[in-house]
Amino acid sequence: MGEKPSAVEQFADRVRAALPTWRAIDTRSICFHQGDDWRSILASIRLLPGRPDEYEPMELEYEGNHFAVLQEIADFSKLGELVEGLLHDRLRVRSRDARLDCPEPPTNQPRPYYYSMRLVERVWARQYHFVMSDFQTLVLQGSGQQIGSFVSQEELDRASVALTAHQKPFNGLDDVVQSLFYSGAEFARGSIATVTVSAPAYSHIEKIEEVRGRTYDITVMGPPSARPDEFRLNVIMRPASGPSIRRSMRFAKRDVASHGGYLRMKKRVQVVDAPFVEAFLVRGGEPVDLSSFYLPTSSTANPRLNAQLTFDPDGKKLTELLFPTGERPRADTFEIGISWLLFLCGFQTVSHGLHAGKLNDEVDCLAFVPLSRNVLAIECTTADLNPTKLVKFANRCSLLREALPDFEVLPMAATSVGQVTTTESKTAAELGIAVLTRPEIEEVLRRAGDNAAPSEIYQFFRTKVVGSFDRDPRSPVF
After folding, report:
1. What is the pLDDT of residues 160-201, one digit of tens each?
2. Where exactly are the structural domains of the chain?
3. 337-386, pLDDT tens digit by residue?
């Protein structure tokens, strides 16, 4: 039986066997001069999807007599040289040849790095200390000894002083590591000397857009070198009862949305009445990303309402807030009730009009529709609709539209009264403001009990703009 390949060799084999993805190699290293050699204490090597000339050099390159911060972006054809160097405990950056080992006391005999390889899924790659990627990433990591065991504190301090005094100043080595080395790990004398080689897949599910009820456009991204027919979208829909529905859809040229740089494609998916959906992006027979999400269905209970009733038996407090009684009901408590109601319907809500958190010239409440570019701006009152206040409210919504140019902003005035006057209704209609009175609030509460989708309830609100037509909503976004 032959000897098992090393982690370095396994990594190289995986990269070479993958579909065309990478065109350049970005090598970065912090080196210290020791004896007659240079020794790397931290190196980050990332395979890039573009050509070397498409990338700018990093902000800092420093070459002194005692330490250096180096970078080289080489063509992907240099992969063999990189691998050969790692196998012999060396790293070449531009014209400098640095050791990848650590002198071990008391004899100072060089000890090679220990290497390991792992595939880091996208959700973990975003926070993995030595990767910091938004893609599934194959990672090769070599680890040595504590840096402080072979680099003195005096040398580290001298390097930090030079970096802070540089014309492109950095606050010491820790700032350099976290800013330029794709790392979220803190740098200290007790840190371990490492070399990390990362090969991101450069493919992921980019967004999920609701086209209409339970129909979604799923947009995916791939590297510039990819072809559409290399990808598939696998979807699993899990109903509340009965077997799961499983579909596999291959991408083709007709699905390409753009190929100026990264490849972007779109698939339209009809989702059955299932509360849980999983979408897998597959390239070359291997899954590279997963996006899962919950959808409200009439066949499942509303979890938000169940949670509310756990602490508010029979919804007594909710009813008290939504339908205030007495001669002078308080508007701020009514606002709390409206915010609660929208949350129970699945909206992402925030209240701005309450005394403790009041802002200047705010709208009382904002409610975003999940998986969408639709947002409600709500003005709450327990009295009649004041035309002057409606005009001010409409002006604030105009400012919100300028801040959210890709969103449909629907202004809505919610009042606890049973009906509004003809004048109030006309003013609201002229300003494009939906009006919600007690009967509509009761209807929304009923729909919350049925676990209606937020997008469905949003469409109901749109019909409450007097004279409005049921236009198609803007495409939502995941």
Report:
1. 999 999 999 999 998 998 888 877 667 877 889 999 999 999
2. 7-200, 204-294, 303-462
3. 999 999 999 999 998 866 665 666 788 999 998 888 899 999 999 888 88
| Domain 303-462 = CATH 1.10.287.70 | no
Do 204-294 and 303-462 share a fold? no
- Nearest in space to 265 (alpha carbons), one of 223, 306, 213, 299: 223
pTM as predicted:
0.75
Fold (topology level) of 204-294 = Immunoglobulin-like (2.60.40)
